[in-house]
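User: Before I run my own analysis I want an independent prediction to cross-check against. Here's the chain; please return only the structure tokens and, at the end, one sentence I can use as a sanity check.
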Amino acid sequence: MPVNDAHVLNRNSPVPLYYQLLEALQARIRAGEWRPGEMLPSEAELGDAYDISRTVVRQALEGLERAGIVYRVKGKGAFLSERKVVARLLQDPSGFQANMEAQGLAVETRVLGQAIVPAPSDVADALGMGVGQPVLCLERLRFVEGEAIFLGTSYVPVALCGDLSESDIGEESLNAFLRRRCGLVPAGGRRTIESVAAGRLQAELLHVPIGAPLFYLFAVTWTEDGRPMECSQVWLRGDRTVFEVQLGSGVNP
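Assistant: Structure tokens:
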């Protein structure tokens, strides 16, 4: 297995050899040398290629495994994990689709249901309206790069935007649709997140086993004048999603 000169380990560096190898393998992964699901070279092959012990190789692979970059199969080796989508939904009111497209990821949407329903109590509380008042209920399954990642139900007060039950939202994000159709612009919101186990319906639609870990997000979005415009219940695959939160108001370094 050829090794690029840029990845040769520096034995005079204070950086431990296992960490140098970890960074070298990450660089090769970023360069596309291996595809998701493809097996990396064995511990023996990596040891020979970099002239290091298998103990050092094992430390590096364990670090990649802890970071979720690879997964290991007993008796076989280390395999490259599927790329995780980075969700910035906790501090960004622009929505899931805009968030994914900003990362250059293709998003597809399947509408599972769209109807006017009486607001359940938790939805009514979040939207500051009476229980049973009419809301648009929009159920969607979202695909990222062809893989089901996001299952969500959104609620919009009929009093804000009229009866949208027959409107063709299609592939357009709900935020973009509400801006275009109703002049509602998201300016802020509140998000709560917890880890839950997939039930039968979530497992079936997201193609995971029953009981698989999911992120459950309850979100409320409001306009610049503080009116709640939409709330959502979202289930995201735990094995394919990582949340990123930026603190402070400074520019990224």
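Sanity check: Residues 17-30 form the longest helix (14 residues).
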